[in-house]
Design a protein that fits this description.
single chain; 239 residues; alpha/beta; Carbamate kinase; nine-stranded mixed β-sheet; two-stranded antiparallel ribbon; 9 helices; 19% strand
């Protein structure tokens, strides 16, 4: 029996790029869509928050001299492109899907309305939240925390494409890096572990929303995460 009934799946833009590092890898997005279909078939209500780092990073644009707010708005538009691509792949897999954006663009998606999003979930539609929070200076990690609180999700599933959990050092650089099985949000903040930014961590901690960090690379991991199997690293509000 599945452990969770309503989840927020956080996908980074880099996860959608796969090995190519930029853009959208059709094989990767198809794999993710198939895995989402798997958990929808278990009667799990699924909301997805997508990043845009595979197309544009607001922080990078700002570092190059661009106005930070402008750079962040461009990043929000990148998340919409990813959301539409994921919606297309899901619907090709016969999974009914809705995209809701924090910035209105009615020709391509619904505006974000909390009650409508919950109604879609209750009807077993996958809801993809795009365009971040609609505000500059806030990451898509913060969006995931905010939307999880708003729709009363039981967990945030943070799918990574380079690591399979939270480590005390970068495992691609330090072969002695230690993987944590369980942490608190205070651990993330105090140790600067960089899983999500401090705004997102604090929001999750204040609302007692658990976070599961795991690898998206291994097929079937989203289902394992939903079923509560021992994968990745769990981050909780308190011990």
């Amino acid at each position: 029996m599945e452990k969770y009934k309503r989840v927020v799946l956080k996908l980074s833009g880099e996860a959608l790029a796969g090995g190519q590092g930029y853009g959208i890898d059709p094989d990767v997005i198809q794999s993710i869509a198939s895995q989402i279909k798997e958990i929808v078939s278990l009667d799990v209500e699924v909301a997805v928050v997508v990043g845009g780092g595979n197309i544009w990073r607001g922080m990078a644009g700002s570092a190059q001299g661009m106005d930070r707010a402008t750079a962040d708005y461009m990043g929000m538009l990148a998340t919409v492109m990813n959301a539409l691509a994921l919606q297309d792949s899901l619907e090709n897999n016969e999974v009914e899907t809705r995209v809701q954006t924090s910035i209105e663009m009615r020709q391509v998606a619904e505006p974000y309305i909390r009650r409508k999003a919950i109604r879609h979930l209750e009807k077993k539609r996958v809801v993809i939240f795009a365009a971040g929070t609609g505000n500059p200076y806030f990451s898509t990690d913060t969006t995931a925390a905010l939307r999880a609180a708003e729709i009363e999700a039981e967990v945030i599933l943070m799918a990574k494409n380079k690591v399979d959990g939270v480590y005390d050092a970068d495992p691609s650089v330090d072969t002695n890096a230690k993987k944590y099985r369980e942490l608190t949000y205070l651990d993330l903040l105090n140790d600067g572990l960089g899983v999500m930014d401090s705004t997102a961590s604090t929001l999750c901690m204040d609302n007692n929303i658990p976070l599961l960090v795991f690898s998206i690379i291994d097929e079937g991991n989203i289902k394992k995460a939903v079923l509560g199997e021992d994968i990745g690293t769990v981050v909780r509000g308190k011990n």
